[in-house]
């Protein structure tokens, strides 16, 4: 694959070694730096109690079956083909890791790292703002995120937290 060659505002071709710095500056300009959020001071009794997330290996196995083989692995190097070829064993092991992570509120270090790759959108390939960042994250971590997301959404749906007028970002 041909390396990216960028041109800065001063029309100078950026050396390959500096492309990462230039792209990082371009990508970070799209985001605002948010200080630590201030959460309202509320009592735990102000809310409905949500059941703990239950991890079962069969559910993880079904999620692995639905993985796209074209997905890129994260920094941990675990790819979907490996997980699919070992889905029963992988789901048993991952379910134990997921349960331990939820109990300890800790994730494996490799799961917290995303590898950012530039993807050309349109326009000149020499212009840094014509790229968007794609973060390649751990596939096992994505599976755990899916389990947690599904649990939270099911809780919110069953307790009528959503307005009947809200249609975006919802199933059906």
UniProtKB/TrEMBL annotation:
<keyword id="KW-0548">Nucleotidyltransferase</keyword>
<keyword id="KW-0378">Hydrolase</keyword>
<dbReference type="GO" id="GO:0003964">
    <property type="term" value="F:RNA-directed DNA polymerase activity"/>
</dbReference>
<keyword id="KW-0540">Nuclease</keyword>
<keyword id="KW-0808">Transferase</keyword>
<protein>
    <submittedName>
        <fullName>Putative endonuclease/reverse transcriptase</fullName>
    </submittedName>
</protein>
<keyword id="KW-0695">RNA-directed DNA polymerase</keyword>
<keyword id="KW-0255">Endonuclease</keyword>
<dbReference type="GO" id="GO:0004519">
    <property type="term" value="F:endonuclease activity"/>
</dbReference>
């Amino acid at each position: 694959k041909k390396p990216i060659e960028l041109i800065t505002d001063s029309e100078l071709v950026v050396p390959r070694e500096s492309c990462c710095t230039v792209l990082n500056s371009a990508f970070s300009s799209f985001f605002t730096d948010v200080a630590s959020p201030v959460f309202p001071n509320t009592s735990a009794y102000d809310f409905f109690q949500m059941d703990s997330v239950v991890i079962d290996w069969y559910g993880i196995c079904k999620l692995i079956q639905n993985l796209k083989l074209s997905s890129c692995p994260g920094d941990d190097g675990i790819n979907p083909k490996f997980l699919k070829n070992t889905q029963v064993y992988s789901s048993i092991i991952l379910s134990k890791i997921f349960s331990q992570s939820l109990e300890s509120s800790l994730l494996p270090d490799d799961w917290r790292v995303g590898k950012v790759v530039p993807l050309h959108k349109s326009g000149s390939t020499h212009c840094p703002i014509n790229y968007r960042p794609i973060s390649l994250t751990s596939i096992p971590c994505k599976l755990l995120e899916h389990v947690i997301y599904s649990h939270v959404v099911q809780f919110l749906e069953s307790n009528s937290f959503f307005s009947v007028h809200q249609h975006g970002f919802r199933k059906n």
